[in-house]
Each structure stands twice: as structure tokens, then as C-alpha cells.
């Protein structure tokens, strides 16, 4: 069991940022409106995620660390109709297989529960007086899998990946107020008022956020809305492009190309806008079961969506006489 958890962990827990992603997604799934993330030494020493979500019932606490334990999917049919971010029930088990995890949780009505899981060894849950919500602390990531530590890059790189993942999750969830601290320094703070432009301000700064163009468009299958920068505010990397489908951050090359196509010759070669694009669609048209991290998705009618996006951006730029 410990070994198979460590193997599964390899797919889900590649680096500190993967832990942050899984924990924060759990907080969002639990309906949290405030999520505070603190990391020490780029997450290698410690990752802590505190939320004000629904919490876990005492009896369910040890179960949450078992592989394929998920409260989010009841039937195989649900696998094709995914609404929540997590659904494989692998994250907590995988993380706890390769780190020392302390979880403290309480529901609004119930008493609190604390549990420690070190390298897959599930400790005895204890009752504790706790505020409603969940706090997960992950210490000494990869302490028992030195081989994996080899793949971890410099702290600077790992921290950049953590910031990147929080940026995306914050943009995908403007209703959630996020903070990110590194070695006690505040790196990022979003308002959480449900306003995408305000969230953009928390991430890219007020000036950039205010200068971005909002656009929206829809057809029978898709609703697209978002913000994209003026052709004179561009970056040399695609890292400032964020695509969300039904509140989930995704990567999709066709959509990236479609956005860029909307700029036509207004964009210099090798330059990319800063943009956030939120797509709403029938979950049945999205296949998220391509990879355990759930970032690469397959879309039905991808060409139609791409066309819709290109046209929306084109028209918005034209309306500014650009
Ligand atoms: P999944 O998210 O795929 O269901 P996880 O291993 O990430 O699997 O989590 C296992 C279970 O633990 C979840 O289904 C959920 O019931 C519970 N859980 C984990 N984190 C939280 C949290 N922050 N708040 C409430 N429940 C949580
Ligand atoms: Mg999860």
C-alpha cells in the first residue's frame, strides 16, 4: 500500500507546486471563500493551506487519506460529468505518501479533528476544538523519496511555479480571497469579491488590469468571457495567458492560437498578450480524464470554440479602433 501510494504520488506530486495545487483545489471544492497559503523554502520545507470551507466530518478524516477515497464522485457516470476540481481521490494519499502531513479540520456543527500522516502511516485521529474549515500542513516534502528530490529545481524556479499556480487558481475563482506568503513575506493577495478585473489587479497590478479589454461572446455550446491586454502590453512568454473551463484552469494549444489569431498582425512575432479567458460549457463536452493533473483537456467542437474566441477578440480590438 505504501509503495503503490508512492508510485501514484509520482503522477500527482511532481513538485511543491503540485501539492499547493491539489490542496487549494480541495479548499475550493469545499466551498471556501478565503484560502491562505504559506510556504517555506519554496514549499520544500513546508506548505500550509488554511481554508474556511465545509471541513471534514470526524469519521471521514482517516478515510480521506486512503487512495481513491473521494467524496465527490458517486458513480462511473459522474466521471464524465465532472463539476468539482478533484475527483480521483488520490491527492491526499499521494501527498501523505511522500511527506509529513498534519490535517486539522472542523465542520460548522461538528467538533474538530486532528490527524498526522507521515510517509503513508495514518496516525490516530484526535478530537480538538477548532474553527470551522480545514488546515493542511505538509512538511519535508520528498523526505522519504530522495530520488524525487533530484527532479526539484532551484527554489527560485519552484517558487515561481507556486506563484503561477495560485495566480491561475485565483483567476479561475474570483469569488475566493487568496493570500500567498513565502517565508512570511506576502507575495499575493486577491480581493475575492467575484470580480475578475479586481482579481487581475491583485495579480498583475492595478494599472495593467485597468488597461485590459473585456470581451464576451457565446453560441449554442459555449460562453466565453475575459480580459485581454492591448497590443502594446505584451509579454515574451505564454505564461500570462490563463484559460479556464467551468472554473478549472486548463492548457490548450488550439485556444492559445485562437486568441493570438484574434490580434492578427497587431501582435509582434514571439509576443503574447496578458489574458484571462473563462469558458462555460456543458461538462459533458470536456474530457478531463486525460492526465492525473487534469490540466490537459480534450474538447468536443474545439474548432467552433476557437473560432468564437478569435472573433470575440478581433471585434473587441476593432471596437477600440485597434
Ligand atoms: P479528491 O479531491 O479527488 O476527492 P483528495 O485526496 O484530494 O481527493 O481528498 C480526499 C477527500 O478529502 C475529498 O474528497 C474531501 O472529502 C476531503 N477533503 C480534502 N481536503 C479538504 C478540504 N480542504 N476541505 C474539506 N474536505 C476536504
Ligand atoms: Mg482533491
TrEMBL record:
GO terms for molecular function: ATP binding; ATP hydrolysis activity; ATP-dependent DNA damage sensor activity; mismatched DNA binding. One of its GO terms (cellular component) is mismatch repair complex. Belongs to the DNA mismatch repair MutL/HexB family. This protein is involved in the repair of mismatches in DNA. It is required for dam-dependent methyl-directed DNA mismatch repair. May act as a 'molecular matchmaker', a protein that promotes the formation of a stable complex between two or more DNA-binding proteins in an ATP-dependent manner without itself being part of a final effector complex. The chain holds residues 9 to 330 of 638 of the full protein. Residues 200-318 form the DNA mismatch repair protein S5 domain. This is DNA mismatch repair protein MutL. It comes from Lacticaseibacillus brantae DSM 23927. GO terms for biological process: mismatch repair. Keywords: DNA damage, DNA repair. The keyword DNA damage applies.
Amino acid at each position: 500500500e505504501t509503495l503503490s501510494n508512492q508510485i501514484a504520488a509520482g503522477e500527482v506530486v511532481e513538485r511543491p507546486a503540485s501539492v499547493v495545487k491539489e490542496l487549494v483545489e480541495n479548499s475550493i471544492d469545499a466551498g471556501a471563500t478565503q484560502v491562505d497559503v504559506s510556504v517555506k523554502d519554496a514549499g520544500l520545507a513546508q506548505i500550509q493551506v488554511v481554508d474556511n470551507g465545509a471541513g471534514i466530518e470526524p469519521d471521514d478524516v482517516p478515510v480521506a487519506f486512503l487512495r481513491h477515497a473521494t467524496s465527490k464522485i458517486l458513480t462511473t457516470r459522474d466521471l464524465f460529468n465532472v463539476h468539482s476540481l478533484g475527483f480521483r481521490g488520490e491527492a491526499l494519499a499521494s501527498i501523505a505518501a511522500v511527506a509529513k502531513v498534519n490535517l486539522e479540520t472542523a465542520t460548522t456543527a461538528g467538533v474538530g479533528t486532528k490527524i498526522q500522516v507521515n510517509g503513508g502511516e495514518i496516525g490516530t485521529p484526535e478530537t480538538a476544538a477548532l474553527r470551522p474549515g480545514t488546515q493542511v500542513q505538509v512538511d519535508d516534502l520528498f523526505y522519504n523519496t530522495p530520488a524525487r528530490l533530484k527532479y526539484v529545481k532551484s527554489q527560485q524556479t519552484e517558487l515561481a511555479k507556486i506563484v503561477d499556480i495560485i495566480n491561475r487558481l485565483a483567476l479561475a475563482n474570483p469569488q475566493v480571497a487568496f493570500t500567498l506568503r513565502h517565508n512570511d513575506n506576502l507575495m499575493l493577495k486577491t480581493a475575492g469579491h467575484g470580480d475578475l478585473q479586481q482579481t487581475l489587479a491583485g495579480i498583475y497590478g492595478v494599472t495593467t488590469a485597468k488597461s485590459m479589454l473585456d470581451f464576451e461572446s457565446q453560441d449554442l455550446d459555449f460562453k466565453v468571457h475575459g480580459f485581454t491586454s492591448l497590443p502594446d502590453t505584451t509579454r515574451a512568454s505564454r505564461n500570462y495567458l490563463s484559460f479556464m473551463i467551468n472554473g478549472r484552469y486548463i492548457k490548450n494549444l488550439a485556444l492559445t492560437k485562437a486568441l493570438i489569431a484574434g490580434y492578427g498582425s497587431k501582435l509582434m512575432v514571439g509576443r503574447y498578450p496578458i489574458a484571462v479567458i473563462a469558458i462555460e460549457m456543458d461538462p459533458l463536452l470536456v474530457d478531463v480524464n486525460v492526465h492525473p493533473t487534469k490540466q490537459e483537456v480534450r474538447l468536443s467542437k474545439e474548432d467552433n470554440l476557437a473560432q468564437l474566441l478569435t472573433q470575440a477578440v478581433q471585434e473587441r480590438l476593432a471596437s477600440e479602433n485597434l
